[in-house]
Design brief:
By secondary structure, the protein is an alpha+beta fold. It is built from three helices and five strands; from the N terminus they run αβββαββα. The radius of gyration is 18 Å and the shape is globular. The structure holds guanosine-5'-monophosphate and zinc ion. Zinc ion binds next to α1.
């Protein structure tokens, strides 16, 4: 597991590794992805080392989406459909996370070929299964909130 000192994104925040910064605040840093899926692909990260979202303090988390929104607007988002994009956030290797420091991807989707491709292997509707998982999640939330 990456420590604060070896984490590549912590080193980018500190300026030890160069990056094309597009936005910075006291809690957030945003920069261009080195291997973009499309032009403008940007990573928005907290200035706090946590591998996964559930490990990140809320005050850092709260600044990330407004920063991602600023970046989407800077990349060309408007009320119409001209500019389309995905926000992506992976937690864990199985979930396609490679760098273990929380990051949100802002990925423009200019056409079918560039940007994010998504697999969406949906299961058949099963209301008994939904009811059971609903009850399980509500019980767990009561314990954790
Ligand atoms: P993940 O799969 O963990 O959600 O995505 C990690 C992203 O970080 C990848 O899209 C990868 O291209 C990007 N990345 C990894 N190392 C560096 C780096 O040193 N600099 C920049 N700018 N991006 C990086
Ligand atoms: Zn880190």
């Amino acid at each position: 597991m990456a420590t604060l000192h070896s984490c590549i994104f912590c080193r980018i925040i500190k300026g030890e590794i160069p990056s094309y910064k597009v936005f910075e605040s006291s809690k957030v840093y945003a920069f261009l992805d080195i291997n973009p899926l499309s032009e403008g692909h940007t990573l928005v990260i907290p200035k706090y080392h946590a591998a996964k979202v559930h490990e990140l303090p809320d005050d850092y988390l709260a600044e990330i989406l407004p920063a991602a929104k600023k970046i989407a607007l800077a990349l060309g988002a408007t009320p119409d459909d001209t500019f389309q994009y995905n926000l992506l956030q992976n937690n864990g290797a199985l979930a396609h996370q490679v760098v273990p420091h929380v990051h949100f991807h802002v990925i423009p989707k200019p056409n079918e070929d560039e940007g994010l491709g998504v697999g969406w292997p949906q299961k058949e509707s099963n209301f008994d299964a939904l009811k059971a998982s609903h009850a399980k999640i509500l019980a767990s939330l009561e314990n954790k909130l």
